[in-house]
Automatic annotation (TrEMBL):
<dbReference type="InterPro" id="IPR040442">
    <property type="entry name" value="Pyrv_kinase-like_dom_sf"/>
</dbReference>
<dbReference type="InterPro" id="IPR013815">
    <property type="entry name" value="ATP_grasp_subdomain_1"/>
</dbReference>
<feature type="binding site">
    <location>
        <position position="622"/>
    </location>
    <ligand>
        <name>substrate</name>
    </ligand>
</feature>
<dbReference type="GO" id="GO:0005524">
    <property type="term" value="F:ATP binding"/>
</dbReference>
<dbReference type="GO" id="GO:0046872">
    <property type="term" value="F:metal ion binding"/>
</dbReference>
<dbReference type="GO" id="GO:0050242">
    <property type="term" value="F:pyruvate, phosphate dikinase activity"/>
</dbReference>
<dbReference type="Pfam" id="PF02896">
    <property type="entry name" value="PEP-utilizers_C"/>
</dbReference>
<dbReference type="InterPro" id="IPR000121">
    <property type="entry name" value="PEP_util_C"/>
</dbReference>
<feature type="active site" description="Proton donor">
    <location>
        <position position="829"/>
    </location>
</feature>
<feature type="domain" description="PEP-utilising enzyme mobile">
    <location>
        <begin position="414"/>
        <end position="496"/>
    </location>
</feature>
<feature type="binding site">
    <location>
        <position position="742"/>
    </location>
    <ligand>
        <name>substrate</name>
    </ligand>
</feature>
<dbReference type="InterPro" id="IPR015813">
    <property type="entry name" value="Pyrv/PenolPyrv_kinase-like_dom"/>
</dbReference>
<feature type="domain" description="PEP-utilising enzyme C-terminal">
    <location>
        <begin position="525"/>
        <end position="867"/>
    </location>
</feature>
<feature type="domain" description="Pyruvate phosphate dikinase AMP/ATP-binding">
    <location>
        <begin position="54"/>
        <end position="281"/>
    </location>
</feature>
<feature type="active site" description="Tele-phosphohistidine intermediate">
    <location>
        <position position="447"/>
    </location>
</feature>
<keyword id="KW-0067">ATP-binding</keyword>
<dbReference type="Pfam" id="PF01326">
    <property type="entry name" value="PPDK_N"/>
</dbReference>
């Protein structure tokens, strides 16, 4: 293969091979912009080097040929004593990893060529400054010497002077000191041979792909670890030749707000790395207009050219050598979520892109960011600890440790933060009442995290440094800080920070816009414009998972076209728990029927509210799903209570304890739940179906869909379906009957199951857990961190759909289900329904809709459009 490309041979689309920096240097060269000549060694050579521990055959020769070309073009030889060519050796991967890998400048200098450089430039100081920079960068990067050693020596020499105040004699001394450090640390001389310098630098840049900080960065940014970096060898241009020289960085518009204008920093008499290192204070780019008007105008012209060419915000690095401008880097620049929406919309106005492209340029994660309130930055914040950023937002409130207390205080208008070791379904009321949830245990898919995200509630979970003592009513933070119930804390679900006391927040105008259509800022106008277009191009419908009329109404305002999942189990908690207990304790038929009869009107009222909120749109109601014992008291607590009371224990408690023991399961997730429960407890499902039918009869334009959970065999479904159909026929109500696909067997026998189901809804939480054979509640904190480190998966399969495994089961069900029943309706109602990548997958396999929590509905709308484009 060809391992080396001269800049004119590449272009911006060759990023895989040439890296982002190399591809864009090539592009700029071909645009006729002033780029110093050079060449790029491919990522393929890097991958070979990293896997074999040596350079691929033929690479040295190929590099030699391109170097000779470069020398001919420049009329100088690399490191030649009289008039040396110098080069930089620069990393540059497919995805930008700012500052994570290495670059060495001024390759080619040694004791002889430094004199030639001084003479040719007529500037001794500049030459020695360049030499000391080479020793410093080469020493640290290539030879692995602690950078502190060089900096220490430099600082000692400088005293309270600036680096530009060092004179020739100082710099000559510094070079000697640096060479001494190299000798000291490596036991050999600094390599004087320019070609050896270059070879070693190339190898060091390749190796820097696996530097610990690069590895960490990639994991965070989800950049694949096998790509490798390219190396760019670029003829040096010098910003450190005096006051008519300098170096800078710039953006073609403001990456923070998206506003057009001149944004950048400039540093006179300096080389590139000084700007980032903060050696001296930079000046705003505007000041360049006074310093060097000609270069300034040329730079603005080039920035305009780049924006038009890339049709996007670009960032650039440039250097001015004695009044001559050189472009050293460009790329489509990173930006804040706010800027992303505004720029996309502005570029449409400017005629550079169309609305399709504008929608492609933004994403659901950015949108989520814009929807949450933020803590305003400010001094005096006291950070207690940092946990996992489970659900974004900024929440401040009084600490409470129980659901009941949360409800109580919140009822009085007090914002509260519910703090628990971990949450369970019983905490739901408290979570709803609280403005934020903080736990010391559990990962991003723990109960607290999942439920909070679903509700759009701020949550920091797994803050392991906190010692939460619910019974004593306090938690202890590092440093022994004790926070009592009633104390105020602030939690940032965006970065996981936990603060003591109140931190001021600013509300999100974007959330307000979704909530009630409030227009206003340019940002909101941009979001509105892009969302409207998104809705016009997407094929997937978007529904919401909502259990209450309030949630349903909100989801509808957020753009949901129906409910894809109403979980009825939440309707059995709270005050109604006693009725459920009665149902379980019932020994005679009449007792059971009495309990069911008491529940039915309550259920009917629940469904009536939902049909009203979703008038004219489908409402999918899942019949009761979780194991019955979840509605019963805790086994240990009840045993203790009964034991302590002895013979005085109330009869009801004794019977309850018997029932709890009887119903206790080793693996509740694989136990008596879903359709199994419906078949085991006669009358339960029938009661729910009757409630649905009654509610539908009394509603305007209801579209009920009855969904049976946890079906694994068509026989299970048939029994329930037949009974439900009978009730519907008796009441004269029209409703669809369908099933969840969440047990692998259901996916595998979907051809049969479709005979009895009018719709499938993929319950991908359970389907993931059963396909992998791990329990979501247990594995996250136990070993997911390790699995992510080891690369078993790049992201938790509970966060983003596992396309190959779980996704394959879904494909089978889609294909075989539709073969049986061509008009089978297909949707998804697991957590994944609001995850961007999973939405794309659902589009690809041809589902009809995704259903997600109300707060994620806008995200799903946007991502469904991006999937369709
Ligand atoms: P990074 O990816 O960390 O920005 P770069 O490879 O871009 O690293 O280089 C670091 C600094 O050195 C940048 O400021 C860049 O502009 C500057 N630089 C790189 N090559 C040259 C060169 N040939 N002449 C002058 N400055 C250079
Ligand atoms: Mg750079
Ligand atoms: Mg399920």
């Amino acid at each position: 293969p060809k391992y080396v490309y001269d800049f004119p041979e590449g272009n911006k689309d060759l990023k895989d091979l040439l890296g982002g920096k190399g591809a864009n240097l090539a592009e700029m060269t071909n645009l006729g912009l002033p780029v110093p000549p050079g060449f790029t060694i491919t990522t393929e050579a890097c991958r070979h080097y990293l896997s074999h521990g040596r350079m691929p055959d033929g690479l040295d020769e190929e590099v030699a040929v391109h170097l000779t070309d470069l020398e001919v073009r420049m009329g100088k030889r690399l490191g030649e004593a009289a008039d040396p060519l110098l080069v930089s050796v620069r990393s540059g991967a497919r995805f930008s990893m700012p500052g994570m890998m290495e670059t060495v400048l001024n390759i080619g200098l040694n004791d002889q060529s430094v004199l030639g450089l001084a003479k040719q430039a007529g500037n001794e100081r500049f030459a020695w400054d360049s030499y000391r920079r080479l020793l410093q960068m080469f020493g640290r990067t290539v030879l692995g010497i602690d950078g502190e050693r060089f900096e220490g020596a430099l600082d000692a020499l400088k005293g309270d002077r600036e680096d530009v105040d060092l004179d020739v004699a100082d710099l000559v001394r510094l070079v000697e000191t640096f060479k001494g450090i190299v000798r000291d640390e490596t036991g050999r001389e600094f390599p004087a041979d320019p070609r050896e310098q270059m070879r070693l630098a190339v190898a060091a840049v390749f190796s820097s792909w696996n530097a610990p900080r690069a590895v960490l960065y990639r994991r965070q940014e989800r950049i694949p670890s096998g790509l490798g970096t390219a190396v760019n060898v670029v003829a040096m241009v010098f910003g450190n030749m005096g006051h008519d020289s300098g170096t800078g960085v710039a953006f073609t518009r403001d990456p923070g707000t998206g506003l057009p204008g001149v944004y950048g920093d400039y540093l006179q008499n300096a080389q590139g790395e000084d700007v980032v290192a903060g050696i001296r204070n930079t000046v705003p780019l505007q000041d360049l207009e006074a310093i060097d008007p000609k270069s300034y105008r040329e730079l603005l012209g080039i920035m305009a050219t780049l924006e038009t060419h890339y049709r996007d915000l670009c960032d650039i690095e440039f250097t001015i050598e004695r009044g001559r401008l050189w472009m050293l880097q460009t790329r489509v620049g990173k930006r804040t979520p706010e800027a992303a929406f505004r720029i996309a919309s502005q570029l449409v106005d400017e005629g550079l892109i169309d609305l399709d492209e504008a929608v492609r340029r933004v994403n659901g994660d950015q949108l989520v960011h814009l929807m949450f309130p933020r803590f305003s930055a400010g001094p005096g914040r006291r950070r207690l600890t940092t946990g996992m950023n489970a659900s974004p937002g900024a929440a401040t409130g009084r600490v409470v440790f129980s659901s009941a207390r949360a409800v109580e205080l919140a009822a009085g208008g007090e914002p509260v933060i519910l703090v628990r070791r971990e949450t369970n379904p019983d905490d739901l009321a408290g979570m709803i009442a609280a403005v934020g949830v903080l736990t010391s245990r559990g990962g991003k898919t723990s109960h607290a995290a999942v439920v909070a995200r679903g509700m759009g509630k701020t949550c920091v979970c797994g803050a392991e440094e906190l010692d939460v003592d619910v019974h004593a009513g306090h938690f202890t933070a590092p440093g022994g800080v004790v926070v009592n119930e009633g104390d105020v804390v602030s939690i940032d679900g965006g970065d996981g920070a936990v603060y003591l006391g109140e931190v001021p927040v600013v509300p999100s105008p974007v959330a307000r816009y979704f909530e009630d259509g409030t227009a206003g800022s340019e940002l909101v106008a941009a979001v509105d414009r892009l969302m409207r277009h998104a809705d016009s191009v997407r094929r997937l419908d978007v529904r919401a998972n909502a259990d209450t009329p309030e949630d349903a109404a909100r989801a509808r305002r957020f753009g949901a076209r129906g409910i894809g999942l109403c979980r009825t189990e939440h309707m059995f908690l709270g005050d109604r728990r006693r009725l459920v207990e009665d149902l379980i304790l019932a020994s005679a038929e009449e007792e059971r029927q009495a309990a069911l009869d008491a529940l039915e009107p309550l259920q009917t009222a629940d469904f009536t509210g939902l049909f009203a909120a979703m008038e004219g749109l489908p409402v999918t109601i899942r019949l009761i799903d979780p194991p019955l014992h979840e509605f019963l008291p805790d086994l240990t607590e009840l045993s203790v209570k009964v034991a302590l009371a002895g013979s005085a224990a109330p009869e009801r408690d004794r019977r309850l304890l018997g029932a709890v023991r009887r119903l206790h399961e080793q693996n509740p997730m694989l136990g008596l739940r879903g359709v199994r429960l419906g078949l085991a407890v006669p009358g339960l499902f029938a009661m729910q179906v009757r409630a649905i039918a009654t509610a539908a009869r009394h509603s305007a334009d209801p579209h009920a869909e009855i969904m049976i959970p946890l079906v694994g065999a068509v026989q299970e479904l048939e029994i329930v379906r037949d009974e439900a159909a009978r009730i519907l026929a008796e009441t004269g109500v029209d409703a669809r009957i369908g099933t969840m696909i969440e047990v692998p067997r259901a996916a595998l026998t979907s051809a049969q199951i479709a005979e009895a189901a009018e719709f499938f809804s993929f319950g991908t939480n359970d389907l993931t857990q059963m396909t992998w054979g791990f329990s979501r509640d247990d594995v996250e904190s136990a070993f997911f961190g390790r699995y992510l480190d080891l690369g078993v998966f790049g992201v938790s399969p509970f966060e983003s759909l596992d396309r190959e495994g779980v996704g394959r089961l879904m494909r089978i069900a889609v294909e075989e289900g539709r073969r049986t029943r061509p008009d089978l309706k297909l949707g998804i109602c697991g957590e994944h329904g609001g995850d961007p990548d999973s939405v794309h997958f659902c589009h690809e396999i041809g589902l009809d809709y995704v259903s997600c929590s109300p707060f994620r509905v806008p995200v799903a709308r946007l991502e469904a459009a991006r999937a369709a484009l």
